[in-house]
Amino acid sequence: MSAAERIMATGKRKNAIARVWMTRTGDGELIEVNKKSINDYFKIETLRLLAQQALELTNTHGKFNFYILASGGGISGQAGAVRHGIAKALEHYDNSLRPVLKKAGLLTRDSREKERKKYGQKGARARYQYSKR
Known about the structure:
Blueprint (H helix, E strand, L loop, with lengths): L5 E8 L2 E8 L7 E3 L2 E2 H4 L3 H7 L1 H6 L6 E7 L3 H19 L4 H6 L30
Helix pairs in contact: 2-4
């Protein structure tokens, strides 16, 4: 990987999509999500830890800079999409990290989607209350 080379990966969860660009240049402490630092974007500590899980698992925290564009879904889905995107970028950079990431389930896209609401019902599965009399 040359000094100016960037690795691009896409992470997805629910309806959220995160496009991740990973570079080796800079101090390595920068993780920018939608032009904000990760601490400003993900206000909840557990979401920050979730998004950076792949870095902690592979001991690569501080070695790369990440520029991420997250869109769609909610904040939790975006954190999962960022986690997936970072894991895919790390795997693309160094294939020897694949077994660690695969065992932790970070390379598998969480395909669970919200079930649609059906007509004549309150929700996807919830029915209106039945009244006998």
